[in-house]
Design brief:
The protein starts with 9 loop residues before the first helix and ends in a 21-residue tail after the last helix. By secondary structure, it is mainly alpha-helical. It has one domain (about 5-95). The protein has 3 helices and no strands.
Length: about 120
């Protein structure tokens, strides 16, 4: 059974929840920006933001009394959020990659110029 958040934990809950949102977005943004522009330093700064995200999530879980099964769910979500940008990046690369010469549909071998707006 879940226990309600105590009044003295309310500020910690509010602040750590805001940090989860902020550093979760910062991690995703820095990771994508660094990969998109070929700047590994930005990717590493993204990992630093992820580290702050982990601390914020664990603080939030402690302040809101998430124990037992909920602890495992929090850890699973943290692992998922670490892996998700990598998976999305590889998915985007795969769907936007140019097929090699001779691959795919033979009807698509004709070069069609892109439409300009």
């Amino acid at each position: 059974m879940l226990q309600p958040v105590e009044l003295h934990d309310f500020f910690i809950t509010f602040f750590s929840a805001a940090m989860v949102i902020l550093f979760g977005a910062l991690y995703a943004m820095l990771f994508a920006w660094g990969r998109l522009h070929g700047r590994p330093k930005l990717v590493w700064w993204g990992y630093a933001a992820y580290a702050v995200l982990v601390v914020s999530v664990l603080t939030l879980a402690d302040a809101t009394h998430l124990t037992g099964f909920w602890t495992w769910l929090v850890v699973a979500m943290l692992v998922g959020y670490l892996v998700a940008p990598h998976a999305i990046w590889h998915l985007c690369e795969g769907t936007h990659a140019e097929p090699a010469q001779g691959e795919g549909d033979p009807r698509s071998a004709k070069a069609v110029p892109p439409r300009r707006a």
